[in-house]
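Workshop exercise sheet. Pairs work together: one partner reads the sequence aloud, the other fills in the structure field after running the prediction. Swap roles for the next sheet.
Pair: D.N. / O.F.
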Amino acid sequence: MFLPYKGSGAALPALISGEVKLGFGPILPAIPHVKAGRLKALGVSGLKRATAAPDIPTIAEQGFPGFQVDSWYAVFVPAKTPKSIIVQLNRELNRIVALPDVKERLSRDGVDPAGSTPEALDALVQKEKKVWTKVLRDANIKVQ
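Structure field:
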């Protein structure tokens, strides 16, 4: 049975207490509990090991080649935002993400910082939409 939680803030205590036996969520809030022995990390879902926990193998490394579920962050603006504003905002965000202290902080927090373009983000969103629409359809999951 799948039990959805409203974020890791609710899911982690349920997992630690034994209310649920398996959880799938962001690595960063789980790491302190793994280090304290309250949780056991089984694997990370990306194609490569997490910089925040390089000792945790990927799920693909453990016999499921091609397994990949990545968390990513993006900045979105209203659809009618002028292109000039989008270009300027994108340029500044890429500049900020490339700053050494920002890159170091994000990496320490388990995020692999990478700049992009609005076009690349749109392609990613379309790819993810296709993948997860198929997952929902195949598993007969209804959005509520």
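Discussion prompt: The chain has two domains: 1-69, 72-144. What would you look at next?
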